[in-house]
Amino acid sequence: MPDLESRYVGCMLGMAIGDALGGPTEFMSFESIRKTWPPGGVTDFCSFRGLPAGSYTDDTEMALAVARGILGASSLDVTAILDAIAGEFVRWYENVDWARSPGTTCTGSVAKLVEGEHWTASGRNDSMGCGTAMRAPPVGLAFAPDRDLLREVAARQSLITHGHDVATAGSVAVALMVAEAVQGAHPDDLLAIVRDSVAEISDVFLEALDRVPPAVELGNTAQAHSLLGPGWTADEAVAGALHALTMHPTSYRDAVLEAANSGGDTDTKACIVGAVLGASLGVGGIPDVWRQHVEDGELLVETGRELLLYVRRHFGI
Question: How many whole angstroms separate alpha carbon 243 and alpha carbon 206?
Answer without folding.
Answer: 14
